[in-house]
Amino acid sequence: MRYCVSDLHGKYDLFLKLLDKIKFSDSDVLYVCGDIIDKGEDSIKLLKLLLSMPNARCIAGNHEYAFIKYCRSIKKKTAESRGGLLKVLQDYFVSPDGKLLDEVAVRGIKCLPFYIEEQNFICVHAGLPLGRDARIVSPELVEREFIAGDRRFKDPDVLPKDSKCVFFGHTPTRNVCGRDEILAYIRPNSSGKNIADYIKVHLDTRAWFSGVMGCFCIDTCRAEYVRLN
Ligand SMILES: [Mn+2]
């Protein structure tokens, strides 16, 4: 089975619970729509687990994007101004061994793509713009800042026409529907049984804060959840 998640934000234990719940195996594939790091307590551990999983396909979110920018700017700064930036990086990664930065993790983040496009769906972190024909603009033509950070795509009235299903996170679904649950937008007059029946799937249940982590099974079109307690 193929699954999609987003905004895991360092919630390592909860993520393991989710894998357990869906009985995730070597023959399954997991798509991760960005924001793996920050906010939660185990950013490095979670990132390294995902990087080590051959069947996990990850993209960058705005938190990875910001991290890359901090890493780059640190190299250009003088010794005095470096302190503040190091503090920011330290807030991202409080590694258990006390090391400020884990080079494997840093390299892993730098290599993440900003979208994944498959036959019937596209994974982005925040969203894609719509063209004049109300179709989504191809992600290869869109700026990284938009794909990883724009807030408009979550709006319920942003419904692309004749496009592949878009998986995304970035804004908590609670801000849209008042609940911590995955929002799947079905095309009019379709059964919702296949992924081609969906316009977009909003995945961010704000796990780091709500304690609810969800994923969407791309093959059964069902959402599964785990809770902290
Ligand atoms: Mn985000």
Report a brief summary of the structure.
The chain is an alpha/beta fold and 229 residues long. The protein has 8 helices and 10 strands. The protein has helices at residues 12-21, 43-52, 62-76, 79-92, 103-110, 144-149, 174-177, 207-210; strands at residues 2-5, 29-32, 56-58, 116-117, 121-123, 165-168, 183-186, 198-202, 212-217, 222-227.
Q: Could you say what the CATH architecture is? A: 4-Layer Sandwich
Number of helices: 8
Strand content: 15-25%
**End-to-end span in angstroms?**
26 Å
Give average pLDDT, whole number: 91
Radius of gyration: 18 Å
Which ranges are low-confidence, i.e. pLDDT below 50, for 5 or more consecutive residues? none
Principal-axis shape? globular
Largest beta-sheet characterization = 5 strands, mixed
Oligomeric category? single chain
How would you characterize this protein structure?
There is one protein chain. The chain is an alpha/beta fold and 229 residues long. The chain is globular, with a radius of gyration of 18 Å. α3 (62-76) packs antiparallel against α4 (79-92). The strands form two sheets. A five-stranded mixed β-sheet has the order 3-2-1-9-10. Strands 4-5-6-8-7 form a five-stranded mixed β-sheet, with no helix packed on it. The model has no long low-confidence stretch (mean pLDDT 91). The chain has helices spanning 12-21, 43-52, 62-76, 79-92, 103-110, 144-149, 174-177, 207-210, and strands spanning 2-5, 29-32, 56-58, 116-117, 121-123, 165-168, 183-186, 198-202, 212-217, 222-227. β2 (29-32), α2 (43-52) and β3 form a beta-alpha-beta unit. The chain starts with a strand and ends with a strand. Manganese (II) ion is lined by residues 35, 61-63, 125, 170.
